[in-house]
């Protein structure tokens, strides 16, 4: 059986969010060839296949029940595979739901967040080092702007950017807009 295709995460094997290994999925019970390796904000299964994420079956199956602090009611909270942080107002709720509940997330050093552009979620292309981001001036400029917000000098920023490493700290995360093709990037340090 072929693996599902995710609009917002086109190659989870290449990004490290999945790995090719035979396993039995804890949600569907099927023998599968690719196993999810990314974050799960919910109950932790022994094994999870990409089919259950794609179909939406994994989110409610791995969800948790939270009680109100006063004990007045409970709330079913579906599992998520990425956080919905800094989502622009123009992004429709169904897009956020697809990214958080039906798309494999990615693991960062601290708090990863999905990027958005043109009123939609972007495609996650993977962790990136300087040489991965360098061919994309729009993404590189986004990283520079991010550093200016922290008061870094231009020299400190350039030194930092040249230290980016896809497999070590600090790391950039490369995205691409599905509509205009703009590349975007965020960064994280351990």
Automatic annotation (TrEMBL):
InterPro entries: UPF0167 (IPR005363)
Family: Belongs to the UPF0167 family.
Identification of the protein by name: CbrC family protein
Organism the protein comes from: Micromonospora auratinigra
